[in-house]
Amino acid sequence: xxxxxxxxxxxxxxxxxxxxxxxxxxxxxxxxxxxxxxxxxxxxxxxxxxxxxxxxxxxxxxxxxxxxxxxxxxxxxxxxxxxxxxxxxxxxxxxxxxxxxxxxxxxxxxxxxxxxxxxxxxxxxxxxxxxxxxxxxxxxxxxxxxxxxxxxxxxxxxxxxxxxxxxxxxxxxxxxxxxxxxxxxxxxxxxxxxxxxxxxxxxxxxxxxxxxxxxxxxxxxxxxxxxxxxxxxxxxxxxxxxxxxxxxxxxxxxxxxxxxxxxxxxxxxxxxxxxxxxxxxxxxxxxxxxxxxxxxxxxxxxxxxxxxxxxxx
Length: 313
Fold this sequence. Notes:
Order of helices and strands: HHEEEHEEEEEEEEEEEEEEEEE
Helix content: 10-25%
CATH architecture of the largest domain: Beta Barrel
Number of strands: 20
Strand order of the largest sheet: 4-3-2-1-12-11-10-9-8-7
Radius of gyration: 25 Å
Largest sheet: 10 strands, antiparallel
CATH class of the largest domain: Mainly Beta
Number of helices: 3
Oligomer: single chain
């Protein structure tokens, strides 16, 4: 009996060698299909950008749309949903297709993920305003490593873990070597309970104003969502730094009816970093008046129109 068992083990080892199956091949050349999502699945990420610093956001599968064959990825914090409206640093919120988890940029589905993962596969997609040429460089167990180069000289590296159902890490570096976005998974789970939000956004204003000897006047239109639907509200973002030694600043935003939904006054050495809020949408022209003194003073204002959807899970 021992002789028979030993012979079978030797034969098995020989066949493995003939078939070319080795430990290295199993870890680096495996194929991994699309993970099965369910409503309530969630992933908690930390995002870091040079302009806006660090913040955390929990992405949640909010809805399964069988007609359009799309998932909806929402966010568990209303304030973070508003932040995404004006900062746009999370490219994975919104619609995601069933078949290959394609995300949408400018209304077009983009195959950021290339299922099933196979080492050496190449493909193209658009994301974060860049056109990418991607390659799966490593497949190790449940994790696929993707390296991408854009036509503009940017690099994008990310790691997809099928056991966790989504990206575990992503880094985007621009053509000057600046890391534009870092995205790191902290934890994930199932059966999220509570309210989640998604805001379809359209950028209306993004301007950095610097010190001047006279008042600054500017305008923008409260309209323009591609769907043709009126905005539910406008989301504003402010980043302000007023220098010392006589520095000062004011900001006044008025709608066409004369109402002033946003007004600010700053004295010397004042800072307001990353403030976010909402104001009513009043279709038409908004006017902006700014005064700004101090050699190094600046005001960065971003405004976006938003159409909000909420779910309770």
